[in-house]
Design brief:
Strand 1 and strand 2 form a beta hairpin. This protein is 36% helix and 27% strand. The protein has eight helices and ten strands. It has a six-stranded mixed β-sheet, sandwiched between helices. It has a four-stranded antiparallel β-sheet with strand order 2-1-4-5, with helices on one face. The structure holds adenosine-5'-diphosphate (ADP) (2 copies). The site of one adenosine-5'-diphosphate has 6 residues, from helix 3. One of its GO terms (molecular function) is ATP binding. Belongs to the ABC transporter superfamily. Keywords: ATP-binding, Nucleotide-binding, Transport.
């Protein structure tokens, strides 16, 4: 599904050159749950931005579902991003003026779906996260954990190839965090790959694979046999 070959990233600011990511190879198959950990400044965000097509890599090749996205222009790049990648952020990023239904509808409107298709997708996603009954509510009427569920529903409604989650439980208390992790695991078991950046080593242990980033170097510890066995 995702294949990176000798991908690297160098930032040039003024005369200063920062090698944010050293060349690495990575394959992620459909349905895998991959955690990305590492200290602050190690390159996690850079990796996520490249995987999410928010930023260009400066070397190597990146294939998504077999397509080489390395040479695409910005327009094609955003099209693929909208169709194939669902984003989940620490801060939920819901629009406060829109109810849950319309929040989920927003990214669908940028695509070619007719209104019936959009409606089915919205209701299906809300049901998947257990919030169908609250479709007319506004984000501020929900708890943090529920808001993150809506953000997950919004990402799922687009039927992405994979979810990119950046510290998805960073703003939640531990009980809500546990609920969100259970939901993500559930989603992964239904076949959607998840790439999740987390500071929390314990949380990383819940993924099948753990990629550690240190000083721009990606390394993968052994496959997490325990999580894989549960899955
Ligand atoms: P993390 O997410 O693990 O905290 P980042 O990916 O944000 O790490 O940063 C990795 C390295 O790349 C750091 O040294 C950071 O200063 C540098 N970096 C990140 N973004 C930029 C940028 N836009 N311009 C220059 N350097 C950057
Ligand atoms: P289903 O069509 O599967 O039975 P529901 O009856 O639970 O789904 O909910 C569908 C309702 O949601 C429809 O009546 C539809 O008009 C309504 N709806 C449409 N747009 C919005 C919106 N922006 N906010 C809340 N509900 C909406």
């Amino acid at each position: 599904m995702l294949k990176m070959v000798q991908v690297a990233k160098t930032y040039y600011t003024d005369s200063i050159q920062t090698q944010a990511l050293c060349p690495f190879d990575l394959n992620i198959a459909q349905g895998e749950f991959v955690a990305v950990t590492g200290p602050s400044g190690s390159g996690k965000t850079t990796f996520l931005n490249i995987a999410g097509l928010l930023e260009n890599h400066s070397a190597g090749q990146y294939f998504l579902d077999g397509q080489d996205i390395t040479l695409l222009n910005d327009k094609d790049r955003s099209k693929i991003r909208n169709e194939k990648i669902g984003f989940i952020f620490q801060s939920f990023n819901l629009i406060p003026e829109l109810n849950l239904y319309d929040n989920i509808d927003m990214p669908l409107r940028y695509r070619q779906f007719n209104s019936k298709e959009r409606h089915n997708r919205i209701m299906g996603a809300l049901e998947q996260v257990g919030l169908a009954g609250r479709k007319g509510h506004y984000p501020q009427q929900l708890s943090g954990g529920q808001q993150q569920r809506v953000a997950i529903a919004r990402a799922l409604a687009g039927t992405p190839s994979f979810l990119l989650a950046d510290e998805p439980t960073g703003n939640l208390d531990s009980q809500m965090a546990t609920g969100i992790m259970a939901l993500l695991t559930d989603i992964q078991r239904q076949g959607t790959s998840i790439i999740m950046v987390t500071h929390d080593p314990q949380q990383a242990q819940q993924a099948e694979r753990i990629i550690e980033v240190r000083d721009g170097i990606l390394s993968e510890s052994q496959r997490n046999v325990k999580a894989a066995a549960i899955a």
